[in-house]
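Reopening: Dynein heavy chain 9, axonemal still failing for me.
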Amino acid sequence: QNIHLVAKWLSSLEKKLEQHSEGSHQDFRVFISAEPAPSPDSHIIPQGILENSIKITNEAPTGMHANLHKALDNFNQDTLEMCTRENEFKSILFALCYFHAVVAERRKFGPQGWNRSYPFNTGDLTISVNVLYNYLEASSKVPYDDLRYLFGEIMYGGHITDDWDRRLCKTYLEEFIKPEMLEGELLLAPGFPLPGNVDYNGYHQYIDDALPPESPYLYGLHPNAEIGFLTQTSEKLFRVVLEMQPRDTSTGEGGVVTREETVKALLEEMLEKLMDEFNIAELMAKVEERTPYVVVAFQECERMNILTSEIKRSLKELELGLK
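Support: Ran it again with your exact input. Result attached.
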């Protein structure tokens, strides 16, 4: 287990695996576990081990839909029925699941999500629900302030080291856990009200039916917050695709197309597809009245011209590089 911690010994492990692969029972298997490397440069597991292995990865859920289902999966029908004050308990439990999904998934937005990265985990959620149960059983009124303090300053707040992040966590709880939640007026996100008193399967069904499409609005963020995350995801995807491409650039037998030839064909195809630049003076002469829409259209044409000329310039430069 955790072989990423014993970098020096990994070459010995590779030799041992080679020795045991010969003459051992055909059903003999070795199970190895390791944490993923934070970057391609940090890969320390020998290539021989990776090539002979079947890789299984446990990916964290992505998106509000998957995170909310995953948070709710930590409980069952018995959990929902264990408290005598069922209505309050169920409402706060669902709000906690949504809160947990939000704080966990905000990490993908980088500094716009949290100033620092925090290791929130399912243990924080399950312990918070146990605390909720104990407090509801022990008091006649729902102690909203006490619960918010315990969740925001101790359970989840225990991970948080930045003052602004602590303030954000506290604000979330003030929005999600308050007396209005029992009156059916609380919106966890735009278009997603807190569900009423239903059974366990009913909550899962409610998430499937009522949760709006994935967007930064579900986390209380502006849609522009997604730009950085999507850019990073695209770059990662392209990097992986490039890493997986064959490195051999020599001409193979049987007329195998080389990398350079493929790139050249793509270049020519792109240059053919590129349209000519807009003639702004000619377009302006055709216009009788310069309404706001027309002005915006001209601005877009100018920007498109800049983009087109830059694409042409870079493609020609790449073509010269290939030659």
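The mean pLDDT is 86. If you still see a failure, please send the error message rather than a screenshot.
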